[in-house]
Amino acid sequence: MMNWRLTHNAYYHQLATRESRHSLFIPPVFCFRGRDYLRVLILVVCIHISYYCFQYSFAMPEEVPHFIPPEIQNNPFGWGPCEMPDQFKDMPYQPFSKGDRIGKISDWTGLSQDKKYLNKYQSQFGGGTQYTYYHEEDENTFHLVDTTRVQKPPYQRGRHFRQGGRMMRGQGGRGGISRLPGGSNQFQSLGKLNKLQRDRKNPNARRGWNNKQGGRSNKNNMQMKSRDASVTVRADWNTIEEMDFVRFSKLSLPTVKDPEDLVCCGSLEYYDKSYDRINVKNEKPLQRVDRLFHTVTTTDDPIIRKLVKTVGNVYATDAILACLMCCTRSNYSWDIVIEKVGDKLFFDKRDNTEFDLLTVNETAVEPPSEEANSLNSPRNLALEATFINHNFSQQVLKTGEARYKFEEPNPFVSDDETDGEVASVAYRYRKWDLDNGIVLVARCEHDSVLQVPNGDLQFLTIKALNEWDSKLSGGVDWRHKLDVQRGGVLATELRNNACKLAKWTVQALLAGSDYIKFGYVSRVQVRDSSKHVILGTQQYKPTEFATQINLNMDNAWGILRCIIDLCMKQKDGKYLIMKDPNKPLIRLYDIPDNTFDSDNDENEDEENGEKSTIPAELLPPNP
């Protein structure tokens, strides 16, 4: 059956001749061909397997094989199992793909700013989605959704607009990967995450972080600042109307005629022209002027109380009107109290509030930090700006000389008042006809007067712009740019303080000032808010400056008229207008009549024989 490679004679012949000393000695019984050798090997293996199986069969006890049928669940209403097996109940399921690359472990946060390994170890089925909370809404909130395809703008159609590189399976669908803002979906340590969050809240650190990234900041990673309302909305307040700024921007009232002066009172000091020659190299320290400033609300004004009997049906001050007319530029929250008595409206500000404080960098891209203890917090900057504005408006005047006096004295100064010197201020009570029976009476202010060479008098509105930290307020250093690029400095202030400058311009226009003068005041040291220097001055005509800052007075009058018409439709009572702290809209609330009335005010009114800030003859008769 097998072919021998060597015969016995050949074998003995090989031993005898010894042709090669390296020849392999192979017995004749193992000298097979290649296929014969394989057959013998298979035969030996089969014999061994049979032997062990024979022994194992005697060692195992005899068992009768039997078939156990599985439990079949019948689903008469569809296909698939009817219920979840007990061993799989309440067990989270992590979707996965067998094509995922193993290499990234324990990605607890799913965040990273490192885009180098964006898709290398990225899961194709959204990791961690089994722990996501889904709010189940009832059917009462069901509403139809418009599924019409939205036409993308041209700048979103390019290939550079697509986020995230390659498209992965399961992305965006059920169980798909959910990207975080900015397209980041990589691993990041918790310590680094907390540090980045702190840096983004800190303007200094954020500026350095942006510089490391080549000067580009990711707007998607910037957190929206949640501001507090100027007054807490109570449960018994009813919301009457919400007015968004988009609708306000479309209003216009071009038919407002020139105002009519009713009463002029107070006295003004003359402006010192030497302050027009101040520059950065010839700076002048800001002095502290100890004078009294009266910020009396509408219903506490004795002149308005007299005018109520004969003139007008809407009453306010220039500061309140400017706040309403420039509301579309405001970001911070504010509120104004409105009292309707018969067919008359009174616009008031609440006592002991921050309404009269000047905001700083309200409209900037990066407003001041909200840290209460910080030197540059919004409130501390507002106090500093108000302090600077009061002192600057009095320092640039010729003190000790004769004042220009109007026909009537200052209505807020009594003859026996000796608390201190009153600031240079004059008041004009003016009347505007807004059509449809609306007659507005408002108190306006002048800060100074200037006598020109031909002998005419020009009334001035004096305001101060302050620099607190050039690195945090736009990056324009006044000491380097003010003399050579004054227009660039003013443009930065228009961007950062658009609302404040617009209100100043409206106040100057309402008062009829011939010029509005701006002073540039800066800190001596960045970290010291108590010492300042005057670096320069600049003046504009209010009408020209309004055009430069894109202030449309027709739109401003339209906004005011819209608010007046809305309040006139309401019943007699007290109302409140408040700017939403986080949304571009204002709300009108119906509030109880005793809101904001303190016990101290009531006691003072009783001692003076008055029970309300509204004149008694205008109150509705008692039932």
Automatic annotation (TrEMBL):
GO molecular function: mRNA cap binding; translation initiation factor activity
Stored InterPro entries: eIF3d
Biased composition (Acidic residues): 596-608
UniProt keyword annotations, A-Z: Cytoplasm, Initiation factor, Membrane, Protein biosynthesis, RNA-binding, Transmembrane, Transmembrane helix
Sequence segments annotated as region (RNA gate): 354-368
Family classification: Belongs to the eIF-3 subunit D family.
Entry superkingdom: Eukaryota
Keyword Membrane attached: yes
Region (Disordered): 198-228, 593-623
Transmembrane segments: 37-58
Gene Ontology biological process: cap-dependent translational initiation; formation of cytoplasmic translation initiation complex
Biased composition (Polar residues): 210-224
Subunit structure: Component of the eukaryotic translation initiation factor 3 (eIF-3) complex.
Record function comment: mRNA cap-binding component of the eukaryotic translation initiation factor 3 (eIF-3) complex, which is involved in protein synthesis of a specialized repertoire of mRNAs and, together with other initiation factors, stimulates binding of mRNA and methionyl-tRNAi to the 40S ribosome. The eIF-3 complex specifically targets and initiates translation of a subset of mRNAs involved in cell proliferation. In the eIF-3 complex, eif3d specifically recognizes and binds the 7-methylguanosine cap of a subset of mRNAs.
Protein name (Swiss-Prot/TrEMBL): Eukaryotic translation initiation factor 3 subunit D
GO cellular component, one term: eukaryotic 48S preinitiation complex
